[in-house]
From TrEMBL:
Residues 42-220 form the Tyrosinase copper-binding domain. One of its GO terms (molecular function) is oxidoreductase activity. It comes from the Eukaryota. The keyword DNA damage does not apply. This is Polyphenol oxidase. InterPro entries: Di-copper_centre_dom_sf (IPR008922), Tyrosinase/Hemocyanin (IPR050316), Tyrosinase_Cu-bd (IPR002227). It comes from Triticum aestivum. Keywords: Metal-binding.
Length: 227
């Protein structure tokens, strides 16, 4: 409710030092995984299915009045990206808070824009934790990440042979995605029924998509888009 304390999200590589917090986070995710996968909308599977529903071109939209051709409805590749994912994470966080009985619970965030956060946060690489996923690229789970792997990869950054250089390049990628000239360039184009599909903004297209690729997904969903 409006009188509850503010939930404060902290960098995931720093919460590792807070054993009580990690215990609560793991307990909440374990409870989500243990809920009835198809019968309880709060279950980890159900929540994953919500993202899938709006990610792999399951829905089409058309402007009925003008009978324009159908286009895929997707919460990526347009300015819908930021508000939709913000909503999605908000409810994911609320579900955990409810399950563990702590209305102040806040998810951690991956602080990949700071040099110390430029690898998979170690709390996600503990095989006995519910935060673990064996499908992640095992060559990357303890390595400094390369944020210049997204569709908008920059081709003028130095080729690196050491981690310090990779981190410098990552800071350049982050700077360029943040320091764009217009809101459209940052958030992406508007998505309109009857129009052409939107195009992604720098927020989505640079470091964010690079992280998906780094962790082991070519796309942000379980499947690449169909033909
Ligand atoms: Cu997504």
């Amino acid at each position: 409710g409006p009188n509850d304390p503010l939930r404060v999200r902290r960098p995931a590589h720093l919460v590792a030092a807070d054993a009580e917090y990690v215990r609560k986070y793991e307990a909440g995710v374990r409870m989500m995984r243990d809920l009835d996968a198809s019968g309880d909308p709060r279950s980890f599977k159900s929540q994953a299915a919500i993202h899938e529903a709006y990610c792999n071109f399951h829905y089409k939209v058309t402007a009925a009045a003008s009978r324009t051709p159908e286009i895929d409805f997707d919460v990526h590749f347009s300015s819908i990206f930021a508000p939709w994912h913000r909503m999605y994470i908000y409810f994911f966080e609320r579900i955990i808070g409810e399950l563990i009985g702590d209305s102040t619970f806040a998810l951690p965030y991956w602080n990949w824009d700071a040099p110390d956060g430029m690898m998979l946060p170690p709390i996600f690489n503990n095989a006995s934790s519910p935060l673990y996923d064996a499908n992640r690229d095992q060559a990357h789970v303890t390595a400094v990440m390369d944020l210049n792997k997204g569709p908008g990869a920059e081709n003028d950054l130095p080729l690196c042979t050491d981690d310090a250089c990779v981190k410098e390049n990552n800071l350049s990628v982050i700077y360029r995605q943040m320091a764009v000239d217009t809101a459209l360039q940052f958030h992406g184009n508007k998505f309109c029924a009857g129009g052409t599909p939107g195009s992604p903004g720098s927020l989505e297209n640079a470091a964010h998509t690079a992280v998906h690729i780094w962790v082991g997904e070519t796309w942000g969903c379980s499947e690449p888009p169909g033909p």
